[in-house]
Amino acid sequence: MDRWIEETFHPHWRVRLEASRVLHEVKTEHQHLVIFENPTWGTVLMLDGVCQLTTSDEYVYHEMMAHVPLMALERPKRVLIIGGGDGGVLREVLKHASVVRATLCEIDRTVIDTARQHYPSIAGGAFDDPRSEIVIGDGRAYVANAQGGFDAIIVDSSEPIGPSAVLHTREFFQDCRRGLKRGGVLVTQNGLPFLFPQHLADTTAAFASLFKRVAPYLCTQPCYFGGPFALNLATDDKHVLKVDAKHLAKRQKKRGVGPLRYWTPEVHVAAFALPAYAQEVVEQAIARARDKGERAAQYLASLPQAPAAEEGET
Ligand code: SAM
Question: In which residue ranges of the chain is pLDDT below 70?
Answer without folding.
Answer: 292-314
